[in-house]
Design brief:
240 residues, mainly beta, Porin, twelve-stranded antiparallel β-barrel, single chain, two-stranded antiparallel sheet
Length: 240
């Protein structure tokens, strides 16, 4: 249910194959004012702490483990699953068609240790990158163990707007069987958007982003758990 804040997930496919050859192991840690995934708050609009360990090699193969805190629903809510941590495992392959076009395929497995409901699930993510653009497709055939498929497509663009300052744009669309009955997730199919500015400061990566969705008033959540209306998110990350 997350988008990795690791080399292997938010930037792997933007690296060249030669970039993957620089090291065999890496690690990362991030602190966010809150964690928004596909436009929805995963941490009750409160602080998120995340970290991961990545393995990658010259062949293009990679693997990673990542963990972060979550807070989906208030205690006593009918959908409350007791989850407080998300643990993600991934493995995949990244390659290049030529000097300008790269691609990646990654299989993710999401786990929620200590939750009261079995909602672990797998998801396949595919991406192609060209000249700052990334087109991606994600497919979970058994989303949170419901027996229904979740699909997601998105377009990202990133570019430098000044020395050491970057611009990141994103638009994504959530759809699939799991949305056929909106009461399943208390969501209809929807789109999410974000615009962010990044800055490299010393050995830290800073990001300030505005995140929003087109979720209608029927399923709009203005604040708290699973908030899905406009928000400003600040994050600090460090890679090792």
């Amino acid at each position: 249910m997350k988008k990795f804040k690791t080399i292997a997930a938010i930037g792997l496919s933007l690296l060249s194959v030669s970039g993957l050859a620089r090291a065999d192991l890496g690690a990362n840690v991030s602190v966010l004012s809150e964690w928004r995934y596909r436009g929805v708050s995963m941490t009750n609009e409160t602080l998120a702490i995340q970290g991961g360990i990545d393995w990658y090699n010259q062949s293009g193969l990679f693997a990673s483990v990542w963990a972060g805190n979550v807070d989906f629903f208030p205690t006593g809510h009918p959908f409350d699953d007791g989850a407080t941590v998300e643990l993600d495992l991934l493995a995949g392959y990244a390659g290049a068609i030529n000097d300008e076009i790269t691609y990646d395929a990654t299989l993710y497995y999401y786990q929620y240790p200590g939750d009261e409901v079995d909602q672990d699930f797998a998801e396949l993510k595919l991406g192609v990158n060209y000249n700052g653009f990334r087109v991606g497709y994600e497919y979970a055939p058994d989303y949170i163990n419901l027996g229904l498929a979740y699909q997601y497509v998105y377009l990202n663009y990133q570019t430098d707007i000044a020395e050491g300052v970057g611009l990141e744009l994103h638009v994504g669309s959530s759809f699939g069987e799991v949305f056929d009955d909106p009461t399943t997730l208390m969501l209809d199919k929807y789109m999410d958007y974000s615009i962010g500015v990044t800055k490299r400061f010393s050995d830290l990566d800073l990001k300030l982003a505005y995140v929003d969705t087109d979720i209608s008033s029927t399923y709009a959540v203005d604040s708290g758990q699973m908030a899905n209306q406009g928000a400003v998110v600040f994050s600090v990350s460090k890679s090792f």
